[in-house]
Amino acid sequence: MAKLKGEVSKEKNHWIHSHRAELSSVVLILIFSVAVIIWNRGIQDQYEHYNNTNITYEKGIVTETGNDELIVDETNPDRYLGMQTAKIKLLSGKYKGETVETENYLTAANNIYVKPGTRVIVSQDEPEDTAPYFVIYNYYRSPAIYGIILVFFFFMILIGGKKGIRALLGLGFTLFTIVMWMIPMIYLGHSPVVMAVLTVVMTTACALVLLNGTGRKTMAAICGTASGVILVGVIFAVFAAVLHISGYNTDETEFMVLISKNTHLQISQVLFAGVLIASLGAVMDVGMSIASALYEVHAVSPELGRGELFRSGLNIGKDMIGTMSNTLILAFTGSGLSTLLVLTGYGIKYHQLVSSDFLAIEIGQGLSGTIAVILTVPLTSAAASVLYKAKRKC
């Protein structure tokens, strides 16, 4: 009986310690978030140099159209080409409530066909000493986007319950950190690779602590994920050196060069940083899966030694490697599908394709991420086998 009470007391102390640590983590996250928001407001002018204050984008609804100059697109009967006139009632901004008239040009690349009742975003340009003019920028998509996000939230919470809510909070913190902290820091001249590594470590720790608390399982997953993502950077750096690719070989190079003239953007490292962020999800998935599986194995068979736990992790990971490798390769390939179609359609030659920046970047990104996913299995297994067999102090 005394032994049973001792075990209960030990478990209770561990529960209290874990929840205190989790609460402390949440408080630190909130403090960091508030500090970043305040800091970001003070430095935006240092990197936002190309925001034209004369142009605003306002909501509007089409009240009337003239389609006399439209023709049916021969290659796609569901689309129109040409020009249509449109009267639009503005629903926001300086001229809210007023009706403006504009010419809406429909081309193969820019095809925003409107009719009465269509909600749009209007580009409102007000140059100095000139009457304002209005152009249809695009469809008003905000309600649909918010609706899709709510559907995602609904299923996340419906299936995941409290874990789903925790996962959403972790995802929100990850996006917040990337947009509000990492990107501004890169513009201010800090190394994109260093900022990406710090972002990965912070967001990984936050997401996993929110999801599973501060136990050994979480620590094993954090160790495996962080080391796996850092390996992505190391491997891609080697591939990039061999393939002669950097941030200057991307499609956005010209825009980044213009921006870098008024900021401290280090263009060459941007590609590396992107690979680190892109690989985080897959590496975290493998790290958490291995850590969770070994945690259950250890709970059922506590007599297993570190070596046996490690080998169990490797065996479990073998089934994940194939599917997660496909996930990364297909993700990078899918993002470049349009480019592949264009290159194929223009009859690109073999050596031309193999030596292109596009293929070099896709192969470098895809394979470095896949190799890192593979190596995350033994790394997480090693971390879990050490942590799970360590004696608990509380």
Outline the structure in words:
The protein has 394 residues and is an alpha+beta fold. It has two domains: 86 residues, Beta Barrel (OB fold (Dihydrolipoamide Acetyltransferase, E2P)); 229 residues, no CATH class. It contains ten helices and five strands; from the N terminus they run αβββββααααααααα. The protein has a five-stranded antiparallel β-sheet, with no helix packed on it. A hairpin with a 7-residue loop joins strand 4 and strand 5. The longest helix has 46 residues. The chain is globular. The model has no long low-confidence stretch (mean pLDDT 85). This is Putative membrane protein. It comes from Faecalicatena orotica. InterPro entries: YibE_F.
| Estimated structural class | alpha+beta
Q: How many distinct domains?
A: 2
User: Reading side by side through the largest sheet, how are the strands ordered?
Assistant: 3-2-1-4-5
Major beta-sheet overview? 5 strands, antiparallel
Number of strands: 5
List keywords for this structure.
globular, 5 strands, 64% helix, OB fold (Dihydrolipoamide Acetyltransferase, E2P), 394 residues, 10 helices, 5-stranded antiparallel sheet, alpha+beta
